[in-house]
Amino acid sequence: MTKIGYRFTRPRRLIFEVLEQHIKPVSTQDIFQFLKKRNKYIDLTSIYRTLDLMKKATIVNEIEFGDGKKRYELVKGKNHHHHLVCKNCGDVEDIEIREEKLMKALKIETDFKIEKHTLEFFGLCDKCK
């Protein structure tokens, strides 16, 4: 964050560490509860503001799985991935898909310049089938 002109304050560092420790996307409430259990209090407003700043700085991705609840995960280099979301238990699994052919076909068919995309598949995981 310092490279883009923002200080890496204690609350920002703690939120970053929470995101680093979680494999799956987490909500603001998840972050709040995780820190609270470890006696590290940061108010929800600060968490929202920090995540918004991290999103603008492309440090985190914001994901919404159709339930109105925003979740966040760290951007991991060029490791672009998608998600499998269980409609029953809410489990989320990262998947990598080679979508180059689809992107080229969309460009040819629509002449639409794609800048960003997200793709989530909803269904039932092995445990819930």
From TrEMBL:
Residues holding Fe cation: 80, 100, 117
A Gene Ontology BP annotation from the UniProt entry: regulation of secondary metabolite biosynthetic process
InterPro entries, per the entry: FUR, Fur_C, WH-like_DNA-bd_sf, WH_DNA-bd_sf
Alphabetic keyword roster: DNA-binding, Iron, Metal-binding, Repressor, Transcription, Transcription regulation, Zinc
Cofactor(s) of this protein: Mn(2+); Fe(2+); Zn(2+)
Keyword Zinc applies: yes
Superkingdom assignment: Bacteria
Cofactor note: Binds 1 Mn(2+) or Fe(2+) ion per subunit.
Pfam family, one: FUR
GO molecular function term, any single one: transcription cis-regulatory region binding
Residues binding Zn(2+), per UniProt: 86, 89, 125, 128
Family membership: Belongs to the Fur family.
Protein name, entry field: Transcriptional repressor
UniProt organism field: Candidatus Roizmanbacteria bacterium RIFCSPLOWO2_02_FULL_36_11
